[in-house]
Design goal:
- The protein has 10 helices and 8 strands.
- The protein has helices at about 15-30, 50-60, 75-85, 105-110, 130-145, 160-170, 175-185, 205-220, 225-255, 260-295; strands spanning about 5-10, 35-40, 60-65, 90, 115-120, 155-160, 190-195, 300-305.
- The protein starts with a strand and ends in a 12-residue tail after the last strand.
- The structure holds uridine-5'-diphosphate (UDP) and magnesium ion (MG).
- Uridine-5'-diphosphate binds near residues 72, 94, 95 and 97.
- GO terms for molecular function: glycosyltransferase activity.
- InterPro entries: Glyco_trans_2-like, Glycosyltransferase_2, Nucleotide-diphossugar_trans.
- Belongs to the glycosyltransferase 2 family.
Amino acid sequence: MVDISVVVPCFNESEVIDAFHGALITALEPTGATFEICYVDDGSSDRTMERLRSLAGSAPRVRYASFSRNFGKESAILAGMRMSRGAVVVLMDADLQHPPELLARMLELHHHGYDQVVAQRDRTGEGALRTALSRAYYRLVRHFMDVQIADGAGDFRLLSRRAVDCVLSLPESNRFSKGLFSWIGFDTVSFTYQNVQRAAGQSKWGGRRLLNYGIDGLLSFNSRPLRLAIHTGLWLFLSALVYALWIVANVVLNGVETPGYATLITAIVALSGIQLATLGVIGEYVGRIYHESKRRPHYVVRETDDTTAVRNSGNS
Ligand code: UDP
Ligand code: MG
């Protein structure tokens, strides 16, 4: 058992991994704690795996696992947490956007009794549009979700062993970890740090990927969107009823012949739009049930120097 496990998901990070590793060691050594670093190569197509293998070969405190293809950051985090043996686990990005200097502060807060310490970034240096969209999204999420997730509170966090074990015991295969971390509860504290740009390489989060991630977040934690669909349907039905009565009354009282095209088309278009969207929502849940019911493993390990759980990446 070591004091600290640092879990680092890496996807095509060969340009920055050495700098990251150096900075991490520099930050960890002065704490006087024993530590291990668990790197997870998420099916990189560059030389990330070779770099990790040689880092692991040169230092006993470093272990790695490499996926057979890109399974996504959530799966990489999961594998890393399964590898970890530390009394606390810190999740960090490999691109130096999560400054290792903050580790000391996180550890100190943990010693004050917190099970989760979240380093929350502000949005310095980010495009205005992206900032505005993210803000709007988190407002929406606050409204919809049963669990609370904060803007900028990403995966840079420290978890106590019992919190990690709790997250690992959750069996779902669609893992939205921001939500899971919030769901497990325990005393959580967060502090804000200034956002930094990635040191080298490219962000893997384009617009489409972010949108899908956003949808995952909204749907992973409850069925409120379904409820919303029912409400919308009911309100539309009521207003259609009122409108129909009004037309009938108008014809009976005034004998007016109603020119119907415009209203008809509008109604059809609006209703089909809503129906399609609702079907989509239902389909999304059905798809999720289908997906979960297959109980596939979260990832497939191609290569690792870890002898424990990750190798047999069986479901949960
Ligand atoms: N990452 C990963 N698998 C992926 C995408 C990203 O393991 O499919 C890792 C990546 O190597 C990095 C972290 O997740 O360590 C954050 O990714 P990125 O910097 O691209 O995201 P951003 O900081 O732009 O949100
Ligand atoms: Mg990044």
